[in-house]
Amino acid sequence: MVADDRRLSLRMIAEELKISLDSVSNIIHDHFQKRKTYARSVPHKLSDEQKQHRMETSGDFIDVCDRNPQFLETIVTGDESRCYQYDPETKRQSMEWCSSSSPLLPKKCRLTKSRIKTLLIAFFDSKGLIHHEFVPAGTTVNAESYEGVLKRLLQRIRRVRPQLYQSGQWKLLHNNARPHTAIRVRQFLATRKVTVLEHPPFSPDLALQTFSCFPASKEY
């Protein structure tokens, strides 16, 4: 039965065979050593060529890091993320140390997240956040606006990372969104002699801010 239909539930098998649910569970789990798994959702299914490109790019990064341990310290990475205008305090955030004699904590009403979202653009390096700004309501990020963001980023790097800016050795890592790869933006970065690191398509896990900076920033 399981071989014919791998999506059968234990209850459906028990009803079909007219045996107890516990018996079916023991047979499936203990005797056949089977367990149910589910499909993993991914943003995009990569082709063989894209997988090869991703592997080669990641290998190049590893090789450079092996030759130059300070390589990661020269990378400035950035991206955009949607943020709620306000988030209610979570249970973890409201936790307090107390003793057995402490009074009960006051109750609070359950709040819902704001329906209003704003777009946050943030850039950071190994030392922390360098520049961030919120996109004005009713506007979108295009080549022209992103060029303005990069101009302000360069000014910010010059002010808060003077040694990195003066060395001219820093690199920019951003994904392949259309505003990032527009001709206007590429020409601007070329005139400013900014090295842009290669970012394989559909590889958000290689953009560190997606998993480190943005999730942490949304807790505050």
TrEMBL record:
InterPro entries: RNaseH_sf (IPR036397), Transposase-MT_Hybrid (IPR052709), Transposase_1 (IPR001888)
Transmembrane segments: none
Pfam families with a match to the protein in the record: Transposase_1 (PF01359)
A molecular-function term among this protein's GO annotations: nucleic acid binding
Protein name: Mariner Mos1 transposase
UniProt gene name: marinerT_58
